[in-house]
Write a structure and sequence with these properties.
Layout (H helix, E strand, L loop, with lengths): L2 H13 L3 H4 L22 H20 L6 H8 L5 H27 L1 H22 L3 H13 L3 H12 L2 H35 L4 H8 L1 H16 L20 H9 L2 H11 L2 H19 L3 H13 L4 H43 L6 H22 L11 H24 L6 H15 L7 E2 L3 E2 L18 H12 L3
Antiparallel strand pairs: 1-2
């Protein structure tokens, strides 16, 4: 089957939406992108792709955060020293960084669906092989490293959603797909300890039980990876078919279009201290509750899961807010709301650490403030990816990869500065993380789109290029049309 025939089929598939989707105002724009998110319109290929994308990423988050909740079982089995867990966390975050940087160009050149599916399958094989062979602290670090690679799928998830949803819905679609997927980390906090206990009750020796438990995240990765590859379409209008674009692209031109755009760097920095804060908390929360409140493994995992579980509603709420303020205030509204929400989340993070450091800390109050912190931090992540699709159309995958990698970089730097060694207690480190987030949110004031302005000043041109001269003539016309939908 030729490339043109595949492209024609995709136009038909995405453009000719069935009655189930069209009823109640659903539909597509001139480029075949859905103009609203309708999760229950299962006959729509946009909705089918949406569910495949978030379920696939859910499995990746589950796998990446499967180790922390069963750390008490892993310590004696792998002879772990106190310094090994932080080192493994850094290894996982570094793997996420490397994977996301590579995934951006892969999505631009190959298409997000294929990139996502193959990444899930490779991660499943790597996690299974490492879980079977690990027998030392080095093996534990390797296990967390290969599991962390699976989070590269976040870039494919956001690239896919940005390609199949119009600007009027892209903020919500990106936020819901990522938010529901992020709940995988919370699910791991609850399910992995329970699965481990179940395996023990079946008579499996302690030294083998954790390895058997790790079959669960591997099975999830394989199932979702195969499902994504079985889905026949990447993007509307044939984008992503047989090469990931409707026109031939130079690899280095695609990369340059993202790397040379200063807006991508600012968003990477700020994302490093909203999503980066989330990564830190999901790595340390269970240990924090075990040590500070003397909770058993299952209870500590349940308390820590509250942070990740907020993704189900908080990150989508950020996407809703981004699209809502854009209708009233355009891009300037998106930027202002992101700054305000992330600043509040940072302040609450400082408060979580201070409450934990109290002489007689209240478990209920600490969990409540942590949940509030999670809500604002995760909403900020959703708000960030309400802006990312408008930075560069040609290099969307690169910009998404840079921004997503910023989250991993922020977490790595924060881990090394505040959580490694014995310089700070875990409570002090959490407060310092919040303070760093407060500071790193300020550069949002530097982001400016010539046709729509920034936080501190209005537009500077009526026909400028908000895409850093990285689009061809056809794309330029489409891009300007996209911006008319911002308000």
């Amino acid at each position: 089957m030729g490339k043109k025939k595949l492209a024609d089929e995709e136009i038909c598939c995405y453009g000719a939406i069935g009655a189930d989707y069209a009823e109640g105002g659903g539909g597509v724009d001139a480029q075949g992108r859905a103009t609203e998110l309708r999760p229950l319109a299962l006959s729509s290929p946009h909705t089918q792709a949406f569910h495949l994308a978030w379920l696939s990423l859910f499995a990746c988050f589950f796998a990446a955060f499967a180790a922390p909740p069963i750390l008490p079982a892993l310590r004696p089995a792998l002879v772990l020293a106190p310094t090994n867990a932080p080192a493994a966390a850094v290894g996982s975050l570094f793997a996420t960084l490397v994977g996301r940087l590579a995934m951006g160009p892969a999505c631009d050149l190959l298409g997000p669906r294929r990139a996502s599916g193959f990444a899930s399958l490779l991660a499943a094989l790597a996690v299974a092989a490492t879980a079977v062979t690990a027998s030392s602290p080095a093996g534990f670090v390797a296990l967390r490293f290969v599991a962390g690679l699976s989070l590269a799928n976040f870039v494919a998830n956001q690239h896919w959603m940005s390609g199949i949803f119009a600007p009027s819905a892209v903020g919500l679609a990106n936020a819901v797909a990522a938010g529901w997927a992020n709940v995988g980390s919370a699910a791991a906090q609850v399910v992995m300890p329970l699965a481990y206990e179940l395996v023990l009750r079946l008579g499996v020796p302690v030294t083998v039980a954790w390895r058997v438990t790790y079959l669960l995240p591997c099975a999830l990765l394989i199932t979702t990876g195969l499902a994504v590859l079985a889905f026949p379409y990447d993007l509307p209008r044939g984008a992503g078919v047989g090469g990931g674009a409707k026109t031939s692209k130079s690899f280095w031109k695609v990369v340059r279009g993202g790397v040379a755009n200063y807006r991508a760097w600012v968003l990477a920095l700020t994302y490093g201290y909203c999503y980066g804060v989330e990564l830190i908390m999901e790595n340390v929360a269970a240990d924090f509750f075990r040590k500070r409140f003397h909770l058993p493994m299952e209870a500590a995992g349940a308390a820590a899961a509250c942070f990740g579980a907020m993704n189900a509603v908080a990150r989508p709420a950020g996407g809703v807010a981004s699209d809502a303020v854009a209708r009233l205030f355009g891009m300037r509204g998106r930027l202002w709301v992101l700054w305000a929400v992330q600043t509040i989340g940072a302040a609450l993070c400082v408060l979580v650490g201070r409450m934990g450091a109290a002489e007689a800390p209240s478990l209920a109050a600490t969990v409540a403030v942590m949940v509030a912190c999670a809500a604002f931090v995760q909403a900020a992540s959703g708000l960030t990816f309400g802006i990312v699709p408008f930075v560069s159309k040609r290099s969307l995958g690169v910009v998404s990869g840079m921004t997503a990698s910023g989250g991993a970089v922020g977490a790595i730097v924060t881990n090394r500065l505040f959580f490694s060694g014995s310089r700070y207690t875990i409570e002090e480190a959490i407060s310092l993380t919040g303070a760093a987030s407060l500071v790193c949110t300020l550069p949002l004031a530097l982001v400016h789109f010539p046709r729509h302005g920034g936080m501190l000043c209005g537009p500077t041109t009526t026909a400028g290029d908000d895409y850093h001269d990285d689009v061809n003539d056809d794309d330029d016309a489409n891009d300007h049309g996209d911006y008319t939908l911002l308000k």
